[in-house]
Known about the structure:
This protein has a five-stranded mixed beta sheet. A two-stranded antiparallel sheet has the order 3-4. By secondary structure, it is an alpha+beta fold.
Amino acid sequence: MLAGMTEAAPLDPEDRKIITLARSARARNGVPEGAAVRDETGRTYVAGTVALDSLQLSALQTAVAMAVASGATSLEAAAVVTDADQAADADRAAVRDLGGPDTPVLVAAPDGTLRAATPAGPRPEGTTGRGARGRRAPPSATAGAPNGRTGRRDRGEWAP
């Protein structure tokens, strides 16, 4: 569905949903971009652009950060509603870091028209990163872990 996708190709209802949520965040908050991501359990996280003197985040970076802060371990898809024709490299990198290189990034116009659907893409050569598969467990996941094991206690995922 990603390669060569045209406007005539049907969009998955779950993907249409995150585009709608992203449009809503953009309009409601009066920000340049709205974004939504769907995690591995189907939960969605919706955000707008953050433009503070001390903190600048795109809408997609904010949505990914919200997912991470809520305990998401991977992403199924991401959407951004923007005037741009494609997602910024930093946005795709944030999606890739949590979801991996094959995670679809949907870019839609303010009216919801899909402009592009591409995978987050591979990490640029010469860069390092943990990625979704090699991420370290968040500090809360290892707090109090017996015998140095990692995982999430609340999900019964302790691993030696």
